[in-house]
Amino acid sequence: MIAPQDRYEPAPGTAPLVQLKGIAKYFPGVAANQDVDLEVLPGEIHALLGENGAGKSTLMNILTGIYQPDAGEIVIDGYAREFASPLEAIAAGIGMVHQHFKLVPAFTVAENIHLGWSETPRLASARKLEARTRALAQRFNLHVRADALVSELSTGEQQRVEILRVLARQARVLILDEPTAVLTPAEARALFKALREFASRGNAVIFISHKLEEVLEISDRITILRGGRRIATHDAAECNHRMLARLMVGREIVLADMRQRPVGAAPRSAAPVLRLESVSALNDGGNTALHDVTLDVHAGEIVGVAGVAGNGQRELSQVLTGLRRTKSGRIIVDGTPLQAAGAAEFGELGIGHIPEDRLRSGLAPSMSVATNAVMREYKKPPIGTGGLFRSRAATMLAREIAKAADVSVPDFSMPVRNLSGGNQQRLVARREMRIAHKVLVAAYPSRGLDVGAINTMLRYIVELRDAGAGIVLISEELEELLNLSDRIVVLYEGRLMGALDNERIDVEQIGLLMGGRALQQEAA
Amino acid sequence: MRQGLRLQRLPSVQPGVALGMRALAIAIVVLAASLVLLAAGEDPLALGAQLVTATFSSTFGMEDFGLLVIPLILTGLSVAVGQQVGAWNIGAEGQFLLGAFAATTVGLFVPGPAVLILPLMIAAGALGGLVWILVPTLARAFAGVNELITTLLLNFVAALLVYYVSTGPWRDRVGMSNSSTARITVEVPEFWGLVHWGLPIAIVMALAAAATLAFSRWGYEVRLSGSNPSAAAYAGIAVRRHIVTVMLLSGLIAGVAGAFELAGTVHRLQGGISNNFGYLGIMVAVLARNSCVGVIFTGTLMAFILNSGIILQTQGITTSAVLAMTGAILFLTAIGDELAHYRIARAGARGS
Question: Which of A376, A400, B65, B244 falls 20 to 30 Å from B223 in CA-CA distance?
Fold first, then answer.
């Protein structure tokens, strides 16, 4: 909790830093915002809470000049303003860190920080820009590698670059869109501390989130959006989980321990169904990303993989599904070592995969829903007999998957990108569950989803576990890992930091392992 | 509060709108050409009427037109097939020339009955086109070298090769021609008037390609590989193998086009035999939005434009005018494709 004396007290009569009045924004077929009022005072951290599609991001895109409102007014420091572009908004002191980072992957961190910034020296060598970046990093206490290419960074590192870029431009209002999704609890606490300090100098933070816990922890006031409209604004001190959840989704939702097996569920098998034996693998850059990883996955259990993004999770999920060759070590499925098997063989063996980035690798966004739904079963009858592709059978299977996923698809020939993120993820999950007889590797299955969709996704995973599959659940959400996993392993710099039985688990211990502390203890 | 009309960008394009934009692009170009002709003191309406009658009212005109349709469908198909795996085959021109060259080699130097030689010539043409795209294909698949540059550059090599043999070692010494080989006696049989069997074969090839892509497992894998290579790899599809196969197929089709042009229409290898068909094939494919069935229609349209150029030439208007027109159509189509993404909406309106 924050001590009251830390709070910045604006002088009486000070105008709010930001006032939005009656904002509306329409997209074809959707009213993304309607009649939204928002007031952000100097010195406050104001949370914007809502499900996916509640209109949080649209509202902030309007405030930062990316979109123009179809109706309503933006008032900054008491003066009505119009931002034709994000540059004008940043000049007025409003900076945003987006959920989907707006960085140039082929540029270095230093180049990204200095891109489109009036204070960038006209003639500056790469070394000079990097030195300036290091100085900024130190000043704002955000560790970044100034000379690294953004494409080589993990999601967490990219976020730090984004935040640093905004802070460097002397923002007075810092908008953060789901900032903690890629941070460890310790990192999140460090971020909160930095935000609090930033606000205490008379600045303001707008904090977009759908996580109740952190919203209650960090914010002074909370505005809840639902269906594009403002539902309520409350002082955080007056709020609790239950009430916020109800306001947010319009119904009560409780995330609970899902480790209990129902009667008739498949028991945990004695022998592992999938075993990694001293596996090492390289990343795309040719550096070792996995060091000597040994991991057993038994049928009917969920193994949680915790860790900060960029510590080898990507490579681990790819090795487990045949997408990445190992450098050394063995992969054993049902007691048989696999030799030179690729993704097709892993799929045929009954290993499903919910990939980290569904749009980049799990789906072909511009192709039809039917085409995408049958990606795992197009070789099998009734779709793929005799080298044919029977599109009618494909549509029928797609319909079946969509029904199981509870996604209503008006037209199976429309591009899959027209579906919402949550619907896409449910389709991918259901598609993979159909083939995952042995193992399902689920990488960040709830990333970017709202509470309701996360609940559905986790229910699917539990359902598959009870049907007798082994699950590898890679996640950044500790709560999710604790609620689901029978065992938790922690990845740190490509090494497995030991397995913890969920019965006697200590959250602080996981946090320490995620920060690589166990290694130091061993060394000592 | 703002009022007035503004543009909204749509995530996906309605096929009808896209098609309409294409028709509009062609209409604008025809209108612009008419204005130019008017300014030059010609009567565009009379010329237009003449074009239509000259092409469609005489068997002779129809035959000329039909002969142009064959290579344009095939080179368009070649480019459209390459696009299925996301490859730009700008080298259909060179593969066409190599196809004609290879067919000539067989026609000039392999003795035997026409029944055997003709299929051999076409097969040699296919092989020639395939060989000509082999290096760009392997460079793309295994080294990530952009095929746009490599296929384009090989066109010039192919053109020089054909010029060299047709004006040098293979020059027709009997007929006193200094710029082409002797007439090759083996011919593709005629199908209707002067139009040879290349026409139905080209149409069947386009339909077969479309059917294979839509209704075979291989076609599914190819389409997925072209649409999102990482999703295809995730599904266990050998993306690289498909890139190789499809690009080779693209070159093969252009080679067949060259062989048909030689054995069906021109009968002698000569420098200008490709007649820009390879480059026009890019336009045919773009206008058809890379649809293999679509190239049958856009190839026919392009043939009409080309044929019009030849007719206009007899009226003292240079063929460059027609090239300029095709270029303008392509240019406006690209703009139209982008515009098809937008719709006009009233700002400040309530509801959806």
Answer: A400
Cα gap A105→A75, rounded to integer Å: 34
Burial (CB count within 10 angstroms: exposed 0-12, middle 13-18, buried 19+), residue A185: middle
Contact B71, B277 (CB under 8 A): yes
Strand partners, A337: A332
Query: Structure pTM?
Result: 0.74
pLDDT (average), residues A60-74: 91
Confidence of residue B223 (pLDDT cuts 50, 70, 90): very high
Residues 6+ apart with CB under 8 A from B297: B288
pLDDT for res A427: 93
Positive/negative CA dihedral, B147, B150, B153, B158: negative
CATH class of A272-358+435-523: alpha beta
Q: Which residues pair with A209 in a beta bridge?
A: A49
Distance CA B36, CA B59 (A): 30
B218 contact residues in A (CB cutoff 8 A): 387
- Residue A2 pLDDT more than 50? no
Q: What is the number of alpha carbons within 13 Å of residue B157 lying toward its C-beta?
A: 11
In single-letter form, the type of residue at position A444 comes to: Y
Class of domain A16-93+171-254: alpha beta
Residues near A103 by Cβ (< 8 Å), separated by ≥ 6? A112, A150, A158, A161, A162
Do B352 and A28 make contact, defined as CB atoms within 8 angstroms? yes
The DSSP secondary structure of A301-344, one letter per residue, reads -EEEEE--TTSSHHHHHHHHTTSS--SEEEEEETTEE--S--HH
Q: Give the pLDDT confidence of B64-120 residue by residue, as tens digits.
A: 899 999 999 999 999 999 999 999 999 999 999 999 999 999 999 999 999 999 999
> What is the C-alpha separation between A89 and B343, in angstroms, rounded?
27
Please tell me if the domain spanning A16-93+171-254 has the same topology as the one spanning A272-358+435-523. Answer: yes
In a domain, B91, yes or no: yes
Domain count, chain B: 1
Give residue limits of the domains in chain A: 16-93+171-254, 105-170, 272-358+435-523
Nearest CA in chain A to B6: A70
Query: Do B232 and A365 make contact, defined as CB atoms within 8 angstroms?
Result: no
For residues A2 and A14, the model is more confident at: A14
On the question of pLDDT at B251 being above 90, the answer is yes
Number of CB pairs < 8 Å for A and B? Answer: 96
Beta carbons of B220 and A390 less than 8 Å apart: no
- Torsion of the alpha carbons at B247, B253, B258 and B264, rounded to the nearest 10: 180
pLDDT band for A182, please (50, 70, 90 cuts): low
- What is the Cα–Cα distance from B70 to B303, expressed in whole angstroms? 9
Of A294, A284, A352, A285, nearest to A328 (Cα)?
A: A294
Angstroms from B95 CA to nearest CA on chain A: 30
Q: What pLDDT does residue B28 have?
A: 92
pLDDT in tens, B317-330: 777 777 788 888 88
Chain B closest-CA separation from residue A353 CA (Å) = 9
Q: Flag if B8 and A28 touch (Cβ within 8 Å).
A: yes
Give the ranges where B84-216 is alpha helix by DSSP (H): 92-109, 114-143, 147-167, 198-215
| pLDDT the model gives residue A130 | 92
Domain with B241 in it? 69-303
Q: Which residues of B touch A388 (CB under 8 A)?
A: 215-217
Residue B45 included in any domain: no
Among A165-169, A400-404, B167-171, name the most confident range: A400-404
Tokens for A351?
């290993």
User: Could you say which of A27, A343, A364 has the minimum Cβ distance to residue B236?
Assistant: A343
| Inside any domain, residue B42 | no
Q: Is the pLDDT of residue B293 over 70?
A: yes
The first and second tokens of residue A86, run together, are: 């994000």
